[in-house]
User: Which sequence fits this backbone?
């Protein structure tokens, strides 16, 4: 008796359940997963397309030009596989930073996007972006629409060996729901502004921006008109050097009227203040949330696990900065939600002793300054004892605040 074939939906669930799902601590490592999926592709014809859809859902390639070229040939020769790719990462090998990088030119990206019709997520890690050909006009529409675009420490080159190219706004090629940029711009871009190719391309369409540090890519974007101010509505900022606060303050002033949700992670800069007593706290005046008159949600990160041991002095710095920022936030009726996220790293877990006495003034100040708040949520790292943390908070906050329907506590799963 011949058994009926398993439905494609059932096979999909089976293959997915064995994959390296980050939410499943018992899932197989990536290497074993891919080996298994490759084997399943050869079990029978009915299994192959389902196994391939899982195997090629996420693809990582090296920035090496030869491997890129082979990958592009593979996609064009196998469109039935290319259609399964939803997430693509192009990275420069961390052991290869001493060698000159192979630039990624717009011509390659155009061919790549044409070969990947279902691409939803793109990540470029430590790559060098090539310039635009001098006599080719910029596109008049976005090349591709993505859910997520991630850029980590991108570099630039204007010379491809045969012609001097023009610097252009790489982000103009995209319409994305979420843009994540990470970098540490230690120097400015002197003289490059004279090589910028402005053209008439549309402004980059970004709905959510996650900015870690500073990136020359955003400087170039500002030179060429900035982001589309009608699209940007959510921003998360994590400065790692004091000078990053200046640009982030400029970003808030420029796009503040469209921003509805804002997150701020102050830990990296405050760590420098802890180690350098000459560091001035006045740098935080750049973050004027009064520039966001329609802000509805504010998320403040209070991160444990800096360099060295945690101390009450570091807690006090957090309290000082966040109270000051709340003081300079427009006291309008639009701010409805305030989240304070207590993150934790380290083994054994950091104690929760000194923090509540410094957190309480922030909560009371928020209630005093923003009488239209609908909810204040304190998210506490799952590594901490939530019940014990609540007991400590009851000892430092007025009973009226603890009993208020505005204040809520819950576990946070972003750390540990």
Assistant:
């Amino acid at each position: 008796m011949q058994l009926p074939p398993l439905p494609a939906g059932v096979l999909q669930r089976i293959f997915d359940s064995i994959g390296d799902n980050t939410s499943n601590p018992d899932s197989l490592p990536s290497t074993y997963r891919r080996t298994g999926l490759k084997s399943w592709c050869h079990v029978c014809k009915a299994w192959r397309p389902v196994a391939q859809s899982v195997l090629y859902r996420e693809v990582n390639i090296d920035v090496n030009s030869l491997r890129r070229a082979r990958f592009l040939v593979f996609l064009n020769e196998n469109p039935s596989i290319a259609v399964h790719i939803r997430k693509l990462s192009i990275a420069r090998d961390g052991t290869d930073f001493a060698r000159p990088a192979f630039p990624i030119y717009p011509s390659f990206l155009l061919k790549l996007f044409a070969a990947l019709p279902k691409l939803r997520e793109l990540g470029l890690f430590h790559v060098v972006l090539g310039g635009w050909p001098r006599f080719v006009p910029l596109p008049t529409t976005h090349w591709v629409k993505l859910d997520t675009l991630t850029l980590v420490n991108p570099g630039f080159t204007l010379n491809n060996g045969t012609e001097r190219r023009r610097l252009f706004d790489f982000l103009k090629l995209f319409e994305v729901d979420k843009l994540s940029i990470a970098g540490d711009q230690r120097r400015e871009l002197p003289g490059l502004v004279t090589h910028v190719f402005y053209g008439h391309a549309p402004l980059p369409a970004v709905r959510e921006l996650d900015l870690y540090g500073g990136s020359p890519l955003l400087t170039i974007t500002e030179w060429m008109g900035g982001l589309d101010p009608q699209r940007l509505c959510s921003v998360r900022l994590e400065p790692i050097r004091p000078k990053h606060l200046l640009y982030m303050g400029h970003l808030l002033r420029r796009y503040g009227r469209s921003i509805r949700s804002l997150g701020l992670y102050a830990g990296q800069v405050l760590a420098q203040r802890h180690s350098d007593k000459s560091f001035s706290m006045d740098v935080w005046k750049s973050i004027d949330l009064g520039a966001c008159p329609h802000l509805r949600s504010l998320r403040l990160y209070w991160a444990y696990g800096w360099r060295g041991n945690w101390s009450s002095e570091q807690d006090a710095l957090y309290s000082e900065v966040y109270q000051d920022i709340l003081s300079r936030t427009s006291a309008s009726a639009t701010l409805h939600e305030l989240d304070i996220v207590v993150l934790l790293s380290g083994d054994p877990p950091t104690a929760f002793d000194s923090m509540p006495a410094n957190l309480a003034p922030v909560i009371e100040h928020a209630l005093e300054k923003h009488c239209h708040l609908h909810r204040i949520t304190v998210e506490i790292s799952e590594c901490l004892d939530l019940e014990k943390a609540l007991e400590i908070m009851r000892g430092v906050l007025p009973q009226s605040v603890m009993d208020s329907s505005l204040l809520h506590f819950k576990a946070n799963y972003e750390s540990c």
Notes: The chain has a mean pLDDT of 78. The first helix runs from residue 8 to 18.
